[in-house]
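Subject: Protein record for review, amino acid sequence with backbone structure tokens
Category: Structural biology, sequence-to-fold work with a learned token vocabulary.
Format: Residues in single-letter code; tokens as whole numbers, each standing for a residue.
Body of memo: The sequence and its backbone structure tokens, given next.
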Amino acid sequence: MSCAALASSFALWNCRYLLPDRPKDSKRKTKVVKRTNNPTWEETLVYKGIAKTQLPSIGVEVSVWDANKLNQYEYLGGCNLNTGSKSGYGMDATGTERALWVEMMSKPNTMVEGNVQLRSTME
């Protein structure tokens, strides 16, 4: 995932939570990418113990943050990757967000890549 034209020199990509319940132990985050306005993350965030049959009813909330030298964070944008079932919090994916999740479900154990427009708010 890449995010172009960030205003500062630090960026953090966060796979915040599994949806729709958002348990705290599901939070994952990448390393901070420093000194670039076009960060690219080459990391895999893994969730273990999820059955293929669960995938249509869950999703992930992804967010991108700007981090300054004082470890203060500013929200830059985010997306929800899921089927768009509207069955609970954050289960509202449409377009590319939904298409990537559906493709991932149809290709188990295969890397799926894509570009997603970040939302300015997750409400």
